Amino acid sequence: MKTLTPLIDIVVPEPRPDQVYTRRCFDHDFRFDGLKRLLGAADCSKAGDRNAGLSTANETEREVARAILSGLTLQHLYDHPLTDNAGKIDSVMIVNYDIDRQAFADVADMTLGQLKDRLLNADGFEVQRLGRGLTGVMAAALAKLCDVHELIFIARKISKPTKARTPLGIPGTLASRCQPNHPTDDLRGITLLIYWSLALGGGDALIGVNPAVDTVDNISRILRHIDKLRRRTGAPTQICVLAHIKTQLACLENGVPVEILFQSLAGTDKTNNEFDITVDLLDRGYHTMAEKGPLKDVTEQFMYFETGQGSEFSYGTHNGIDMATTEALCYGLARRYDPFMVNNVTGFIGPETHLDSYEMIVANLQDHFMGKLLGLPMGMAPCYTLHSNITLEGQQIATQLVTAAGANYFMDVGLNTDRMLAYFDTSAHDDQTLREVHGRRPAPAFLEWGLARGIFALDAQGNVARGPRWGDPRQFCESDAEYQDLLAATPALYGTASAGPRPANDVARLTRLNQGVGRAAIHAELRIDELQQLAPFRVVTTEASSKDAHLGSPNLGARLSAQSRAWLVAENRQVQIVVSDGLSAEAVHHNLRDLLPVLMDGFAGHGYTTGQPIIARYGRVKLAEPLADRLQCDVVVYLIGERPGGDALASRSLSAYLVYRLDDAAQQDAARFSGNPAIRFEYTVISNIYSGGLPPAEAGGVIVDRVGHQNELPCACKFCTHARPCTPLSK
Questions:
Q1: Does 582 have pLDDT greater than 90?
Q2: Cβ(174)–Cβ(447) under 8 Å?
Q3: Is 481 exposed, middle or buried, given 0-12, 13-18 or 19+ CB atoms closer than 10 A?
Q4: Could you give the C-alpha distances from 409 to 152, 342, 406, 466, 686, in angstroms and in order?
Q5: How many domains are there within the chain?
Q6: Residue 356 belongs to a domain with what CATH number?
Q7: Could you give phi then psi for residue 384, rounded to 5 degrees?
Q8: Among candidates 691, 723, 726, which has minimal Cα distance to 706?
């Protein structure tokens, strides 16, 4: 087991005043106030950095920033740790200084430009050795100086194999991480997606489910089920459910097979705190797995981290640091735990961080380079959402480039469509295509298993080929009736036929058509006149003046316009219903006619006072908070269109966020529990409200019941960590 250095023992220089970096070039004077500003200016322009005011106005200014940056020594970067907004060094930055001091001493006097040249000339062993002496800030600075060829050329020199039950990242291999997500955690749908992944040669890195509901009971249920499937199929791999680390540790204490411990990471303490994560908690998770984990006797690598550029900015907790640098700080934190695997999901958030395919491709190459340089086993998930301008073709370009750079694994999300998270990732078809294009194999034990089952075959030259049973999930079912039952429970599945390593044309056409319908739903507008025929809605506006502004900057949709703030006054009602387009106006129009009457009648029947319902065009979930403050209501029932997923029906999916405004006593209780003295609201969510999920009329009853539920019933929100059960309304 790796010894974790106590934070108090990690040497970090004292913060210094910001230095001003200047240069005169072609009769123009350029000035960058502070290292944060210089690092942001030196990067390729990306939406998140533009929105944060960290990107440059033009290419000339960017190249001047890069020239200044390339002339700074590693010692200079070491001597200037980046601080939070209060001028303090947070624990993520401290962990980044837990470096190989001898390796750093060998390069401390070099400029960044000189170090880049040395890495281009060095062999892989030397690149890895020097990487152990770098902080995340140093790795990010180097990435900003590298072009595409250099990001690939240096990264591909680095080999970082790891081992849990089975190995990952052995040279010459390319693995696949099966992600069989289901919008309602239906074990039948999860089963079919696992069977299909295994049949396509996927899952040799890990089988891991993102749960729709993050409770100990549900996570235990899923873990035990996928463990049973692993044993039943005999697939040599490992399992994980991507719940909050606290939930997983509770499952482990109950004897549930938590083989790999997962957690999403961010590059600042403030962002990690939004996830209810601290370095101390991660340390406890690591030690607990070493002492009690199911694989403790076969491996010392049992941690799995997921990262991706932009989460710090999207939470407004980036401390003025650009996205690439905060991402590299994540890697410096992950390195502390010698993880089995790290997965990068840059592109997942949306156009507010990465607007188009170019921005996503460059960011993925940077992330892979920085992670491998800092010593991590990098898996990659170039991904996108339908409200961005990233396309499937852009994603495929990214996967080809990152495979050339030596990625350890990619995701397998069936037909690229995540049925629960409503985004688009790589698939087992992509993984197999990349293996055949780049001459890679699955992990050794998995290959042997696949050969025995006829999923793989060896040609006359000993090359791995697809076998006669490749792509057929029926092989794992005991009967056709079982297969049909599993198939019926799996949404957004347009067929399992393949052509070579790719989906058959008919399957591909249906998949792409449904994506097209989803994109159209995002750009549809609310038809307010139609909605006002259902109820006498009041209309409020946000600071987002257009659809493009709304999609590109979520903060605008979270704030009321000055005009709306002026006329909204305290009404002191218990419940306020708010309807907003969010990311799908079509979801509102397809569900509200059946949902709204149930809500209105239900609240009236319970004796709750309600305000006149409100419509907010171009609204985000956080808009509920200023509305609750202005109206002085107890709870906002916020009905908002979800991010459209992979099929046309899912583009009609609505969510109901229940946003509780805490009174003074409740706020004190919540602050004590959460450790966040600024907490003022608690959230819970009821999602997937549409004909293919929770029917709208039924959802109305669930919402009414949840709004007034008793204190002893816990909230089952997977997006927020609640300080206590949501407060029932008093009549």
A1: yes
A2: no
A3: exposed
A4: 16, 10, 9, 19, 33
A5: 3
A6: 3.20.20.70
A7: -160, 165
A8: 726
What's the mean per-residue pLDDT of the chain? 94
Last residue of a domain, one of 462, 491, 514: 514
Considering the domain architecture, whether residues 499 and 358 belong to the same structural domain is answered as yes
224 strand-pairing partners: none
In a domain, 225, yes or no: yes
- What is the pLDDT at residue 692? 81
Q: For residue 137, is it within any domain?
A: yes
Q: What is the pLDDT of residue 688?
A: 84
Q: Kindly report the CA angle at 20 between 18 and 24, in degrees rounded to 5? A: 165
Distance CA 185, CA 440 (A): 33
Q: What is the distance between the alpha carbons of residues 676 and 724, in angstroms, rounded to a whole number? A: 13
Record the tokens describing residue 666, joined without a space.
């409740």
- C-alpha distances in Å from residue 54, one per residue of 61, 298, 320, 323, 659: 12, 46, 8, 9, 32
| pLDDT of 707 | 92
> Chain centroid to CA 683: how far?
20
In the numeric block, which tokens belong to residue 231? 């044993």
Please tell me whether residue 393 adopts helix, strand or coil conformation: helix
- The reported pLDDT for the residue numbered 680 is 86
Amino acid at 482: E
Scanning 124-202, the segments in alpha helix (DSSP H) are 124-131, 136-145, 148-155, 187-199
* CATH code of the domain in which 610 resides: 3.40.50.11240
Q: How far is CA 428 from the centre of its chain?
A: 19
Domain boundaries, position 654: 523-707
Report which of 306, 375, 370, 307 is spatially closest to residue 338, judged by C-alpha positions: 375
Q: How far is the C-alpha of 329 from the C-alpha of 499, rounded, in Å? A: 42
Which regions of 346-432 does DSSP assign to beta strands (E)?
378-380, 409-412
- Name the DSSP letter for residue 648: T
CA distance 514 to 494: 10
416 and 282, same structural domain? Answer: yes
Amino acid at 328: A
Angle between helices 112-121 and 136-145 (to 10 degrees): 80
Site of tokens 């062993």: 125
Taking the model in full, what pTM does it have?
Answer: 0.92
Distance CA 506, CA 503 (A): 8
Extract the tokens encoding 593: 């006619």
Q: Please check whether residue 35 is in contact with residue 24, taking contact to mean a CB–CB distance below 8 angstroms.
A: no
What Rg, from alpha-carbon coordinates, does the chain have? 26
pLDDT at 323: 98
Task: Return phi, psi of residue 71, to 5°.
Answer: -90, -5
CA 496, CA 478: separation in Å to the nearest integer?
18
129 and 167 share one domain: no
* 163-197 pLDDT tens trace: 999 999 999 999 999 999 998 899 999 999 999 99
Maximum C-alpha span of the chain: 79
CATH number at residue 102: 1.10.220.70
What span, in angstroms and rounded, lies between the C-alpha atoms of 484 and 473?
Answer: 11
pLDDT for 663 equals: 79
Residue 448: closest CA among 127, 699, 204, 271: 204
